[in-house]
Amino acid sequence: MSRNNLIAVIIFVVLAAGSASFFIWRGIKTPVETPPDSSTLGVESPTPLSGVPDESGNELEMLARSALERKIPSGDAAMMKELKDLSVQLKSEPNYLQGWLQVGILRKYLGDYEGASLAWQYAALLRPNDFIAFSNLGDLYHYYLKDFSKAEKYLRSAVDIKPDYVAGYKNLFDLYTLSYPPDRRAGAEKAEAVLLEGIKKNPSDNYLQTILASYKNDNQR
Q: N or C: more exposed end of the chain, with fewer CB within 10 A?
């Protein structure tokens, strides 16, 4: 082997070793991350709502059992399968919030409104500072279970938890103008008041202001 060829081989070996060292170092410094499983996504230890007794852990367990052991309602086959699979998953992953929200949605669409309520009640107990379960419950009790006082309670909780949830004020407005309270004058007063509340808390949003202007215009006719 000529001297020039020998030098070229030595340079190649040194460069190759350096490259290998570089990638090994990168491998040590930047390990590949693995995605978390569903039980760690958006989950925290259950915190009881105010007014729930100290044994709320038992209440959570009983609520979970009531929701998950209900009969799977008949209907769309894909929804039935998803509901069955989620119910099995939640028995081993009871803190999986998104799973509980989805169980409520599936049961609602399959016509099991009481089952939907149980699932969303569990979600509300599991995450009392998240407005979604409360909003879902408010809609369910307003339009499907027709328990308007409960609807008001849950819809009110949703906007108290998330004051910038503009649609939540509209949901309360709809309750007051369509269904509750029985005294329509009282309902009208509450309807206007909740729009004004939402506007005050969200001054840069025009949605509620438009609804209020239209509502006042209609009532002047």
A: C
> SS3 helix, strand, coil % of the chain, rounded to 5?
70, 0, 30
Q: How many CA atoms lie within 13 Å of 91's alpha carbon, on the beta-carbon side?
A: 10
- Count Cβ neighbours within 10 Å for each residue of 164-196 and write b for 16 or more, e otherwise: ebbebbbbbbbbbbeebeeeeeebeebbbebbe
Q: Which CATH architecture has domain 57-219?
A: Alpha Horseshoe (1.25)
Q: Which two tokens stand for residue 200?
A: 């005050």
Give the global pTM: 0.74
Give yes or no for a contact between 89 and 99, defined as CB atoms under 8 angstroms apart.
Answer: yes
Contact assessment for residue 38 and residue 93, using Cβ atoms and an 8 Å cutoff: yes
Q: Summarize pLDDT for 74-108 with one digit per residue, the tens.
A: 999 999 999 999 999 999 999 999 999 999 999 99
Residue 219's contacts (CB-CB under 8 Å, 6 or more residues apart) are 188
At 54-73, the pLDDT tens digits run 345 688 899 999 999 999 99
> Among residues 179, 159, 177, 180, which one has the least CA distance to residue 169?
159
